[in-house]
Amino acid sequence: MHNAMRLALALACLGGALAGQAHAQVYKCTGKNGETVYAQNPCGAGAKEVQLGSTRAATRSSSEVATRQAVFRSTDLSDAAIAERNCTASARSNIYGPVDGRIAGYQRQVDALNQQLSAPRENLANATYDSGIRAQVASLQQSISAERQTAETSLNSSRQRCADQRREREAAIERKYQAEEEAQQAAAPAPPVKR
Length: 195
Fold this sequence. Notes:
The chain is mainly α and 195 residues long. The chain is 71% helix and 6% strand. The chain has a three-stranded antiparallel beta sheet with strand order 2-1-3, with helices on one face.
């Protein structure tokens, strides 16, 4: 039983190694200790040529090809979606990184001005001073709003560009697999005519 398994494994390995060779030959011999040996060249005076039967067709069936194409197509489309997400994430980082830094600077200025406003003031000159500080705070808050709006507009443009790139990539993928499918259909033999 154990020898039969080794024999089957040896034939399978040898068959796999020789698959695709048009005129591959395998010889069966008896080794020094009486064991069966398989080789590509005659291995002794009693070597016998063995015909190997393939366990798999040399070509893929149409269903195997269709399944394989569906998997590759799905993978390519998934890659296009991932590329769009990466494109959007990169744009977000490139846009909001500097904007967030500027907004943080504006916010620090607003906080410092608000601290100045919290100090008690009792005369008219101080009221004018407070009014000036409030005007500066309002101006900084407008700058913060403008930064956010500009960043959002830029990000929306980048999202659109990333989505357009994805659509172009998906269209190219569809054209590629459509062309492959048409080529396979053209190469497929015509079905036999029943009479």
